[in-house]
Design goal:
alpha/beta, D-Maltodextrin-Binding Protein, domain 2, nine-stranded mixed beta sheet, 9 strands
């Protein structure tokens, strides 16, 4: 009888640890994301909303340094992948972003050219010192800032105007696009280029204090009219950029934001998250300064969702 009671007492003490052991055997659901930093606020919003209906999945953004982390499930990039990359990864082109020229608001340059605007020749002269461009006599001092590392925004900006990232002539800044923004704000004659979502304050919808957006020749006729000066608030900018087909817009580089997973043995939780974004993420895109995909890419999104859903 004493042995029975000792056994019963032992089971009482052990039962909590037995339950814990069984629980700990269950593998946690973890998805690691990395890539373009200026997308992180939008990605984090999607993570937060996804976790409301999938609280058992842990989605972690691991900031990208000089190189990608050693292990990740979803890669976030802001330029078109090459054909070799497409052989090994499946892509979701979930949004677009636009790039605009910006200057420090304190500069005389910003005050003059926020009124005059920039046509393509002047953009090439300012950023690339293009000897074939129709030269203008620029009397106001300026200093161009650009990115050091290969990245989506500088690749997209330079490619649009027929150059490569290395062709931008100016002060090179290490770090992310956010570091480029900080450098611009520190220099009273600074001039650069930034994705729209970094230019505008999400809370106010206005450009961040200290930044002036320089209007461009939006219709490609060689000059900037008053109707092309629509950069006072984020809502108007998004509406104007989405009102035309991308190929009909001049002097505003626009590229896709893509999220990808490995084609071979992908993390199934990562695939589920991308499927959820396709079905639920579009409503947040404008708020965070991005543009919706064009119809041609939306079809490919649905194809990803249906194929991976099998």
């Amino acid at each position: 009888m004493k042995s029975f009671f000792r056994l019963a007492l032992l089971l009482v003490f052990l039962s909590p640890s037995i339950g814990k052991s069984q629980t700990s055997d269950k593998q946690p659901k973890i998805v690691v994301l990395t890539g373009t930093r200026f997308t992180y606020p939008l990605i984090q919003k999607w993570i937060d909303d996804y976790n409301k209906v999938n609280p058992d999945v842990q989605l972690i953004i691991e900031s990208r340094g000089t190189n990608d982390p050693s292990r990740y499930d979803i890669l976030i990039e802001a330029y078109e992948p090459d054909e070799e990359a497409k052989k090994t990864r499946d892509y979701v082109f979930i949004a677009r972003y636009a790039i605009l020229p910006v200057a420090n608001s304190q500069s005389a340059f910003s005050k003059v050219y926020s009124n005059k605007g920039l046509n393509q020749d002047l953009i090439r002269q300012l950023f690339f010192h293009d000897i074939t461009a129709d030269k203008k006599d620029i009397k106001n001092p300026f200093k161009v800032y650009t990115r050091l590392q290969k990245a989506g925004a500088p690749i997209t900006f330079t490619k649009y105007f027929g150059y490569e990232q290395k062709d931008i002539l100016g002060k090179v800044i290490a770090g992310s696009d956010e570091h480029l923004l900080k450098a611009l704000l520190r220099d009273s004659i600074g001039l650069s280029y930034l994705p729209v979502n970094l230019i505008y304050d999400q809370a106010t919808g206005k450009p961040h204090a200290g930044i002036t957006v320089l209007p461009v020749d939006f219709d490609g006729n060689g000059k900037v009219s008053d109707s092309e000066k629509f950069y006072g608030d984020l809502t108007t900018v998004v509406q104007r950029l989405e009102a035309k087909a991308q190929k009909e817009i001049s002097n505003v580089p626009i590229e896709y934001l893509n999220l990808s997973v490995s084609k071979t043995n992908p993390n199934l939780e990562a695939v589920s998250f991308l499927q959820w974004i396709i079905q639920n993420g579009q409503k947040d895109i404008h708020e965070f300064g991005f543009l919706k995909p064009e119809e041609s890419r939306l079809g490919k999104q649905n194809q990803f969702a249906s194929q991976r859903g099998k």
